């Protein structure tokens, strides 16, 4: 059920922010983008959010009736708080109150991957799928799970945190302070670090993907190993919740074809075959705007509970 025709959608990522007015068909108007040099700056966060949001509000004739926000990390949807983000160090940031005070509209917030899953269920490749998992591969790695048509949130809104499944005991240090987490071995930053360790050259996940496509052996090895880690974590999801589909999103997933083979290899080795023979793997149908459309979906369906 849709409650609003037009929503000011704000997608806050680890190194960027997007804002647009999105209609009830999931179509964004002009998308405004704010890039951060490395990570979200806590000191300028309020100004950055309000400036980017105002640009989106002023650029279209669509009049927003509500605001939906996605945040990377743990969201307190009841109090409208960005509770915690390991990547940036943001904690207890009152984003709901700030936006309500500025725009006098109801505000709904959620974790970015939960929102992506909601958007995929409403507009993407899972419109007819009740049981699926959504995995984001970007600056970090996150997950969300739909079971029997419902988003699983967990006791403290922490369900689906696949990024902090340990895939390499005593492995790389994760921003969460543990070692060997999927996020520390399969995120965009982890891909760049693995390639630098292997070759001595600094690069980005996107550029390393391009190198892999033209035959760079080190780049191919890094993407194969990344895919295997993702498949290892995906096998845990498959064995525990038995989804029909696992959907991959986030910037790194745009090169899903470089990962899919080794993801499937890991699943073949580790997932319980009898119940997971029909498991489908797919890239998000919403591409780069998945979290932005997800932010709108959170508000349109009142998926986040905070109403200012």
Helicity range: 25-40%
How many DSSP helices?
Answer: 10
Task: Count the E strands.
Answer: 13
SS-derived structural category: alpha/beta
Uncertain segments are none
**Average pLDDT rating:** 92
- In whole angstroms, the N-to-C terminal distance is 20 Å
Q: Please state how the strands of the largest beta sheet are arranged side by side.
A: 3-2-1-4-8
Order of helices and strands: EEEHEEEEHEHEEEHHHHEHHEH
Largest sheet: 5 strands, mixed
Radius of gyration: 19 Å
* Principal-axis shape: globular
Bin the strand percentage: 15-25%
In short:
By secondary structure, this protein is α/β, with parallel strands linked by helices. The chain is 37% helix and 21% strand. Helix 3 crosses helix 10 (290-300).
Explain what the structure shows.
The structure is a single chain. The protein has 308 residues and is of the alpha/beta class. The protein has helices spanning 45-58, 95-103, 112-123, 183-186, 188-199, 205-213, 217-241, 257-270, 273-276, 290-300, and strands spanning 6-12, 16-23, 32-35, 66-71, 74-76, 81-84, 91-93, 107-111, 132-137, 141-147, 150-151, 245-249, 280-283. The strands form 3 sheets. The protein has a 5-stranded mixed β-sheet with strand order 3-2-1-4-8, sandwiched between helices. The chain has a 5-stranded mixed β-sheet with strand order 11-10-9-12-13, sandwiched between helices. The mean pLDDT is 92.
């Amino acid at each position: 059920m849709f409650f609003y025709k037009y929503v000011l959608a704000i997608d806050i990522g680890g190194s960027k922010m997007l804002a647009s007015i999105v209609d009830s068909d999931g179509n964004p108007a002009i998308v405004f983008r704010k890039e951060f040099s490395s990570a979200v700056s806590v000191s300028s966060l309020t100004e950055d959010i309000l400036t980017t949001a105002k640009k989106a509000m002023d650029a279209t004739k669509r009049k927003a009736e509500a605001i939906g926000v996605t945040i990377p990390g743990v969201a307190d949807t009841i109090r409208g708080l960005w509770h915690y983000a390991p990547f940036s160090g943001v904690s207890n940031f009152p984003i709901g109150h700030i936006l309500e005070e500025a725009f006098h509209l109801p505000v709904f917030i959620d974790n970015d991957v939960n929102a992506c899953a909601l958007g995929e269920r409403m507009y993407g490749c899972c419109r007819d799928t009740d049981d699926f998992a959504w995995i984001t591969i970007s600056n970090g790695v996150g997950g969300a799970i739909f079971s029997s048509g419902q988003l699983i949130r967990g006791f403290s809104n922490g369900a689906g945190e696949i990024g902090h499944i340990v895939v390499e005991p005593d492995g790389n240090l994760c921003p969460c302070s543990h070692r060997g987490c999927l996020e520390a071995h399969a995120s965009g930053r982890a891909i760049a670090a693995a390639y630098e360790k292997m070759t001595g050259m600094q690069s980005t996940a996107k550029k390393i993907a391009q190198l892999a496509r033209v035959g760079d052996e080190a780049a191919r090895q890094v993407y194969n190993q990344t895919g295997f880690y993702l498949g290892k974590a995906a096998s845990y999801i498959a064995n525990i919740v038995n989804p029909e589909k696992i959907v991959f999103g986030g910037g790194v997933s745009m090169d899903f074809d470089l990962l899919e083979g080794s993801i499937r290899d890991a699943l073949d080795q580790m997932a319980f075959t009898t119940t997971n023979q029909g498991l489908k793997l797919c890239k998000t149908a919403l591409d780069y705007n998945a979290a932005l459309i997800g932010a709108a979906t959170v508000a349109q369906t009142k998926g986040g509970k905070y109403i200012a």
